[in-house]
Amino acid sequence: MALHHLIAQSSLGREDSSASLSILEEELLRVGADGWSSLSASLRAKKSVQEYLQASAVDGDEHLVNDLELSEALHSVAEALRRVAVSKAGAQEAAAEWKRKYEQERIRNICLQQQNYQGAPFLQANEIKNSSSAACDGDLLCHQESPSNLPQYATGQSFGRKDFCDQQFIHSNSILSNLASASAKKPPLEKASFRLEWGCNGEKSRRHKHEIVSFENGNITTANHSSKQITLIWDTAPQTVCILSKPNSASVQQLCMEMIRWLEEKQMGVIVEPRVRQELLDTSPYYSFVQTWESDSEVSVLHQKVDLIVTLGGDGTVLWAASLFKGPVPPVVSFSMGSLGFMTPFDSGCYQDCLQTIMNGPMYITLRHRLQCRIMQADESIEGREELDRHSEEIHLVLNEVTIDRGMSSYLTNLECYCDDVFVTSVQGDGLILSTPSGSTAYSLAAGGSMVHPQVPAILFTPICPHSLSFRPLILPECVTLKVKIPDSSRGPAWVSFDGKDRLQLGPGDGLICRMSSWPVPAACIEEPTHEFLRSVREGLHWNLRKTQSFEGPRDVS
Ligand SMILES: NC(=O)c1ccc[n+]([C@@H]2O[C@H](COP(=O)([O-])OP(=O)(O)OC[C@H]3O[C@@H](n4cnc5c(N)ncnc54)[C@H](O)[C@@H]3O)[C@@H](O)[C@H]2O)c1
Ligand SMILES: Nc1ncnc2c1ncn2[C@@H]1O[C@H](COP(=O)(O)OP(=O)(O)OP(=O)(O)O)[C@@H](O)[C@H]1O
C-alpha cells in the first residue's frame, strides 16, 4: 500500500481516515513481521495513530477532525515505515555480506584441501597432521584454531624449481606438553584470547573491510581505510610471557631477573631462551619455575603458548625475537636497552607500569610486515655447498630486509631483477636491498631509500651504490613477487643476508625469491602508532634537525 495514497486520504472525513488507518495497521504489521527492529518501529507508529484516534474521540465531534493533525500523524507513520524499510535493507545487506564471506571461506578451504592432496612440498606426512594456523580473514583478527583436520599451506606461486610454502606449522600436543611439564610446580596455563579492533580517525569499529576499493551502483569508491589504528583488547587475561634478552649485558640480565620476580608475583608463566635459563639457575635455584625449550620443534609451537613477547635490548633483539617465529608472532613489547631503539618504544626504567598497562589492555598495535625469502640454487648437485643446500630448504622471514651484495669481492655485482616474472632491471653496483617498511629506517635508509611508515603495505627496492646516475630507489606494492638472480655470466659470487644475519654465498645461476609474508610482527606501541613512528624518526634519527634561522638579517620588503 503506497503511503502517499494514505496521506492523501487524510483530507477525507473520520470514517475514511479510520478505514485508511486500518489499512495502515495491516501494512505496519506486515512490515513489522520482518524483524525485531522493524516490529518495534511499527508498534510505536501504530500506538501513535491509536493515541491520535482516542484524542479525537474525546472531542466528541466527529466532524471536527482536523485535517492538518491527521496529515501530521500519518506523516509520522510514514517516517516510521521509512525507517523500518531502511533497517530491513541494512539487515539484508549485512546478511548478503556474511553469505559472501562464508562462500569465500568455503572455497578457500576446498582449494587448501586440494593443494594438500596434490602434495605438500615441504612437510612430511607425519608433520601435516594437526597443522594449525592463525590466519583469519574475518571482520576481526583473532586467535583461532583452523578446522582440526585441515592442514594449511600458503598458496605460493611457482617460481623456479620449488614452490613457496610459508605456513608450515606443526601443532604437536606432545611438544606443548613438554614445555608445560618443564614447570613442575604449576598447572599448565591456557593461552589468553584477545581480539583486535580496527579504527579510523579515532572511531573504533568492529568491522574491518579488506577491500580497498568497492564498486557499488556503478560507482567506484574507496572503502573505509580501516587498518589505520589497531587496538588489541584481551578477552581473557594474558598468562604467559616469553622474555628474549640481549646476551652479554649485565644490565639486561639484572632487569631480566627483576622482571621475572615481578611476573611470578603476578602468577604469570615465564619462558626464556635455554641460555638465559641456565644463567638464571647459576644465580639462584629460585628460577627453576622458569620454562624454556629444548628443540627447534618446540620453538615452532611457541606462538601457541605465549601471550606476550618481551624483548630487552636494542633493535637487534627485536629482529632476533622476530626471527624465532617462522609463522604467527604473539604481540611484542620491546623495552629499550640499546643505543638507537627505533623499534623499542618502552622505557625499561618503568617496566612494571608498562607491563601492567599492557596486561590490562587495550593497547595500540603496529603490524610490522615481514618478507619471506627463499634461495634458489642453480644446480643442487654442485659439491661443497652443504650450507647453501641446507638454507635453500628454508623460508627466511625478515623484519628489516634481505640484502644481496658483493661481499668481499672488489668487483661490481650484477643482479638480474624480475617482478612477477617480468624483467625489471640489472643492478650493477654494490648490491640490492629488498626491505620492509620497518626496515626502511635501517640499511635501506643508509642506501638512499625513503622512510616508509611500517603499516604501509609495500616492498622497498633500494640499490646499494649503483653505478648509474639514474637508478632511484623504488617502492613496490605488497602483492608482487620479486626474484633476484646472479646471471650465469657473472664474474664473481654475491652474498645474501637476512636482517644482517645468516650470510650465504651465491654463485652464478643462483638467486633469491622474495614476497610479503602473511605473518607480521604485532608490535605494541606506547602511543598512537603514527605519532610513535614520527617521534622515532625525529628523536631517533634526528630527522631534519636544523637550527632555526633568526629574525635578524635580509628579508623581503612588502
Ligand atoms: N649501513 C647501514 O646502515 C647498515 C649496514 C649493515 C646493517 N644495517 C642494519 O642493521 C640491521 C641489523 O641490526 P643489528 O642490531 O642486528 O645490527 P647492529 O648491531 O650492527 O646494529 C645496526 C643498527 O641499526 C639499527 N637498526 C636496526 N633495525 C632498525 C630499524 N628497523 N630502524 C632503524 N634502525 C634500525 C640498530 O638500532 C643499530 O643501531 C640490519 O637489518 C640492517 O638494516 C645497517
Ligand atoms: N637473544 C639473543 N640471542 C642471540 N643474539 C641476540 C639476542 N638478542 C640480540 N641479539 C643480537 O645481538 C646484537 C645486538 O643486539 P641489539 O641491537 O639489541 O643491542 P645493541 O647493539 O646494544 O643495541 P642497538 O642496536 O640499539 O645499538 C644483534 O646483532 C642481535 O641480533
Written account of the structure:
Residues 1-18, 31-43, 56-65 and 117-173 have low confidence and may be disordered. The chain is globular and about 95 Å long. It is α+β, with helices and mostly antiparallel strands and 558 residues long. It is built from 14 helices and 26 strands. The N and C termini lie far apart (72 Å). It has helices at residues 3-8, 14-32, 36-59, 67-118, 125-128, 173-181, 250-265, 274-283, 296-299, 315-324, 351-360, 386-392, 443-446, 529-541, and strands at 158-159, 162-163, 194-200, 203-205, 213-216, 219-222, 229-234, 240-245, 269-272, 308-313, 332-336, 346-347, 363-368, 371-376, 396-398, 401-405, 413-419, 422-429, 431-435, 458-464, 474-477, 481-485, 494-498, 501-506, 511-516, 521-524. The protein binds nicotinamide-adenine-dinucleotide and adenosine-5'-triphosphate (ATP). Residues 244-247, 273, 313-317, 319-320, 338-341 line the site of adenosine-5'-triphosphate (ATP).
Mean pLDDT: 78
User: Can you tell me the residue ranges where pLDDT is under 50 for at least 5 consecutive residues?
Assistant: 1-18, 31-43, 56-65, 117-173
Shape: globular
The main β sheet shows up as: 6 strands, antiparallel
- The assigned structural class equals alpha+beta
Task: Briefly characterize the structure.
This protein is of the alpha+beta class and 558 residues long. Helix content is 34%, strand content 23%.
Helices and strands in order, then pairings?
Layout: H1 3-8, H2 14-32, H3 36-59, H4 67-118, H5 125-128, E1 158-159, E2 162-163, H6 173-181, E3 194-200, E4 203-205, E5 213-216, E6 219-222, E7 229-234, E8 240-245, H7 250-265, E9 269-272, H8 274-283, H9 296-299, E10 308-313, H10 315-324, E11 332-336, E12 346-347, H11 351-360, E13 363-368, E14 371-376, H12 386-392, E15 396-398, E16 401-405, E17 413-419, E18 422-429, E19 431-435, H13 443-446, E20 458-464, E21 474-477, E22 481-485, E23 494-498, E24 501-506, E25 511-516, E26 521-524, H14 529-541
Parallel strand pairs: 8-9, 8-10, 10-11, 11-12
Antiparallel strand pairs: 1-2, 3-4, 3-7, 5-6, 7-13, 13-26, 14-15, 14-25, 16-19, 16-23, 17-18, 17-22, 19-20, 20-21, 22-25, 23-24
Helix pairs in contact: 2-3, 2-4, 3-4
Bound molecules: nicotinamide-adenine-dinucleotide (NAD) and adenosine-5'-triphosphate.
